[in-house]
Amino acid sequence: MIYNVQGEPLYVYTGGKFFDPAKPTAVFIHGVLNDHSVWILQTRYFANHGWNVLAIDLPGHGRSGGKAPASVQEAAQSIMTLLDAAGVSKALLIGHSFGSLIALHATAENPSRVSQLMMVGTAYPMRVSPALLDSSLHDPQKAIQMVNVFSHSTLAPPPSALGPGTWLLGGSKALMRRVLASNSHENVFNKGFKACDSYDQGEVSMRKVTCPTLFLLGKKDQMTQPKAAQSLIKLAHDGHVAMVNAGHQLMVEAPEETLSAMIAFCKK
């Protein structure tokens, strides 16, 4: 589905279901150089179990038009504009990595419009090493290889993630190459990393969040290590923590475990 957001087309995956105003809505926000497809198992479950699903391609990524957001704040505004366009007064926000900071900032600035917040694979500050920043700009294929080595703790997922024998590392690299190629006007890889690295409002934003917040973290995550989320966890008004036996891409590496933690949190 395409929504007009800030004058540009924004692609939203709905899990194959039509929007129903009577149902609660969950918004899924991906990380740097990803798209809506990283949430494939979780979004299908939500869409078939009583939820409206809005799993986006961020502006300038994948099937969405416009410029890629230069900051977390800019991306957060896109999320709220999407809710307006969809006629959603209140939603559950779920974000992974870069997307977790986007969800956090959107919640902090619009507390009455967010029912619950899930921060998946998060950290604050979300620093990116100078070497990786440089590679994402000057040698993005090298940076893609680096990111994926750090993001995965297993090579193949259980049967529930895409299918038995799926090569996680290769699939993730292919996705990142495709998203990078989807925007020939700007380097969305480097732009996304810069937005993560420069975001300095995490603790201020967390203090503003009043809704229940789930920190869903990968035990083997080397990109956003669980210990790097502790400053936000300590500030959460109604915080909950779930640890998943996976690396940074826990939605695909441990899809059932990740989904189970999400479902349990939604029932709180």
The first-level CATH class is given as Alpha Beta
Helix and strand run: EEEHEHEHEHHHHHEHEHH
Low-confidence stretches: none
Determine the N-to-C terminus distance.
Answer: 30 Å
Largest sheet features? 8 strands, mixed
- Look at the structure and give the mean pLDDT: 95
Strand content: 15-25%
- When the domains are counted, the total is 1
Question: Would you give an account of this structure?
Answer:
- It is a single chain.
- The protein is of the alpha/beta class and 268 residues long.
- The protein has one domain (2-266): Alpha/Beta hydrolase fold, catalytic domain (Rossmann fold), CATH 3.40.50.1820.
- It is built from eleven helices and eight strands.
- It has helices spanning 40-47, 72-86, 98-109, 130-138, 140-151, 168-181, 188-198, 202-208, 230-235, 250-253, 255-266; strands at 2-5, 8-13, 25-29, 52-56, 91-96, 114-120, 213-218, 239-244.
- Strands 1-2-4-3-5-6-7-8 form an eight-stranded mixed β-sheet, with helices on both faces.
- Helix 3 links the parallel strand 5 and strand 6 (114-120).
- Helix 4 packs across helix 5 (140-151), helix 4 runs antiparallel to helix 7 and helix 5 packs antiparallel against helix 6 (168-181).
- It is globular and about 45 Å long.
